[in-house]
């Protein structure tokens, strides 16, 4: 059993077992961790195992076995003072230092941290990561040098000779203080060194410390300088673009007020957005480029109901949509489109504050919009389409343009998705036409908010009417298994009798076969016969034909019929038209 007699032993004991548990768990987790090969992420467990067996497996298993042997040997020799056991224990401690080679695996961690810093878009994080990594490298090197410096001094003392520990009168100090003396000696070596005159090994190691310090310092300064140079290069490119713009404005004698607005927009774009650094598409494959666009733009396109449905059912087409939309940036108080102008594309807001106004931008009330909205969606399917309102950017703002021609190119390779959008286009145009017939006169921001909400609702309603949407998200209320035909007919029968009570004893079979009900009133079958007889005799005026038809056939009732229950009003109109034309 290991005996913990002081604070240093407690720290060593905790550090040893924590590291052992970590690396044992890392051994098993590595078999479930993917890796990159030729720029492609490999997630196959078989390939992962093969790659691990060919790389770090032997090294990891050897060091784990060494740790286990070290733990067992430490426990067995805790109370053994025999010199042979002590020498064996010191040999194991020397081998244990090989565990520090695992620090080479931490290079993967630094790469992940740097990638996360780039993803955050903060340049100072890259510099911080570089400084932390350099400081960590210096501390590890100093720790190794201090440990070997202590080992050299302790070896001379065990041989019965003086060493740097005896010169400093630190031989009897606790282990943690001796370590601090060794670390201080490495980080700030005294001149001349505190070593006995006859200690050649210690003087030789002092020279090794000086050489190692020079090498480590040079590498550290080189890394920091390289990071600063890279950041300075990025900033210099931005500064050069800004200076070129300012010189152009000066040479063209642009007015001061316009120059100020242009430069504010340039500063905003260089500071906040990625347009300052263009994407070099030759460095990545088309598949990765499409995946990049999806990660950047899907959060905005998914707000549009039909595009969100396409992302669920046809992810490849949705990825093409993400790559086809065009990102645009607008300055303060810049008009995006004007009421009555021809819509060239569907516009989606993404960032910044927009304003929706009427015809006159000066006197018209303006509704502020923050978030994702879309306008002129009908222009994707119908030409021409004219804007009903005016949209402008109140602050620096961003959005996306989606043209009908670009959407057509994305749909060319997917007939099923094309059919879905054709059905959606018909329903969307019908919804917008219905909204225009029932639209109210807009006089203030409340009216603008109502108009905007009606446009958004029209898109959602058209999407929910789509057969693909209904198949993907089935409505239980429209399930035939949940629909009670008998109950529906009884309700329509009760309506025609102008009564509130229905004869509950009538079964479905009797209701469908009976010609007369128990109280002498005509049943649905009798209504149909009466209608056919009167129609053939010419006793039904044309103005009453639709009402008599719905009375004769309950399923055609505009309030309680089956078409109304299943929200298929368009099919109801087709059925009535077919019956009349026949």
The largest beta-sheet arranges its strands as: 3-10-5-8
Overall structural class, as computed from helix and strand content, comes to alpha+beta
Please report the number of helical segments.
23
> What is the CA–CA distance across the termini?
100 Å
- Radius of gyration equals 40 Å
Amount of beta strand: 5-15%
Number of strand segments: 10
Percent of residues in helices: 55-70%
For the structure shown, list the relevant keywords.
alpha+beta; elongated; 582 residues; four-stranded antiparallel beta sheet
What would your notes on this structure say?
The structure is a single chain. The protein has 582 residues and is α+β, with helices and mostly antiparallel strands. It contains 23 helices and ten strands. The chain has helices spanning 7-29, 45-53, 57-76, 83-96, 107-120, 123-158, 164-167, 175-187, 200-251, 256-272, 286-301, 305-313, 315-324, 404-411, 415-437, 445-465, 467-472, 485-497, 508-513, 524-536, 545-552, 562-565, 569-581, and strands at 35-37, 40-42, 326-330, 334-337, 346-351, 353-357, 366-370, 374-375, 390-393, 397-402. It has a four-stranded antiparallel sheet with strand order 3-10-5-8. It has a four-stranded antiparallel sheet with strand order 4-9-6-7, with helices on one face. It has a two-stranded antiparallel sheet with strand order 1-2. A hairpin with a 2-residue loop joins strand 1 (35-37) and strand 2. Helix 5 runs antiparallel to helix 6 (123-158), helix 6 packs across helix 8 and helix 20 (524-536) packs antiparallel against helix 21 (545-552). The longest helix has 52 residues, at 200-251. The radius of gyration is 40 Å and the shape is elongated.
């Amino acid at each position: 059993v290991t005996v913990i007699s002081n604070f240093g032993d407690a720290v060593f004991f905790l550090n040893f077992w924590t590291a052992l548990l970590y690396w044992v768990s890392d051994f098993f987790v590595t078999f479930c961790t993917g890796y990159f090969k030729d720029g492609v992420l490999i997630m196959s467990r078989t390939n992962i195992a093969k790659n691990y067996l060919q790389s770090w497996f032997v090294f990891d298993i050897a060091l784990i076995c060494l740790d286990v042997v070290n733990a067992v040997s430490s426990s067995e020799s805790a109370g053994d003072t025999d010199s042979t056991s002590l020498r064996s224990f010191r040999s194991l401690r020397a081998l244990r230092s090989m565990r520090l080679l695992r620090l080479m695996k931490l290079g993967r961690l630094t790469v992940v941290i740097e990638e996360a810093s780039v993803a955050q878009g903060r340049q100072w994080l890259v510099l911080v990561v570089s400084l932390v990594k350099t400081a960590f490298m210096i501390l590890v090197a100093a720790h190794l040098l201090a440990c070997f410096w202590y080992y050299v001094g302790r070896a001379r003392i065990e041989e019965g000779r003086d060493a740097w520990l005896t010169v400093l009168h630190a031989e009897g100090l606790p282990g943690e203080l001796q370590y601090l003396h060794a670390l201080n000696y490495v980080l700030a070596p005294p001149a001349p060194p505190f070593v006995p005159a006859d200690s050649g090994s210690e003087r030789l190691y002092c020279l090794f410390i000086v050489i190692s310090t020079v090498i480590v310092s040079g590498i550290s300064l080189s890394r920091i300088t390289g990071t600063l140079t890279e950041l300075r290069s990025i900033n210099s490119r931005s500064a050069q673009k800004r200076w070129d713009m300012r010189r152009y404005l000066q040479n063209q004698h642009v007015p001061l007020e316009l120059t100020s607005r242009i430069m504010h927009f340039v500063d905003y774009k260089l500071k906040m957005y990625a347009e300052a650094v263009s994407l070099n598409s030759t460095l990545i494959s088309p598949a990765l480029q499409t995946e990049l666009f999806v990660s950047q733009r899907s959060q905005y396109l998914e707000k549009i109901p039909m595009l969100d449905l396409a992302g669920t059912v046809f992810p490849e087409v949705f990825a093409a949509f993400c790559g086809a939309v065009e990102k645009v940036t607008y300055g303060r108080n810049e008009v995006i489109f004007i009421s009555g102008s021809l819509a060239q594309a569907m516009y989606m807001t993404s960032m910044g504050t927009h304003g929706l106004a009427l015809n006159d931008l000066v006197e018209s009330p303006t509704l502020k919009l923050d978030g994702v909205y879309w306008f002129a969606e009908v222009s994707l399917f119908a030409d021409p389409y004219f804007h009903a309102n005016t949209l402008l950017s109140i602050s620096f703002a961003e959005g996306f343009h989606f043209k009908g021609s670009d959407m057509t190119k994305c749909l060319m390779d997917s007939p099923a998705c094309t059919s879905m959008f054709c059905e959606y286009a018909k329903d969307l145009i019908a919804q917008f036409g219905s909204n225009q017939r029932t639209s109210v006169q807009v006089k203030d921001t409340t009216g603008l908010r109502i108009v905007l909400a009606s446009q958004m609702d029209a898109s959602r309603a058209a999407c929910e009417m789509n057969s693909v949407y209904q198949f993907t998200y089935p409505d239980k209320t429209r399930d035939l298994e949940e629909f009670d035909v008998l109950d529906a007919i009884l309700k329509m029968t009760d309506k025609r009798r102008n009564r509130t009570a229905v004869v509950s004893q009538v079964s479905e079979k009797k209701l469908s076969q009976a010609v007369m009900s128990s109280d002498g009133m005509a049943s649905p079958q009798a209504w149909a016969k009466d209608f056919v007889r009167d129609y053939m005799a010419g006793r039904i005026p044309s103005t009453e034909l639709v009402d008599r038809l719905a009375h004769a056939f309950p399923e055609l009732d505009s309030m309680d019929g089956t078409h109304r229950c299943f929200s298929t009003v368009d099919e109801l109109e087709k059925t009535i038209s077919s019956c009349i034309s026949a």
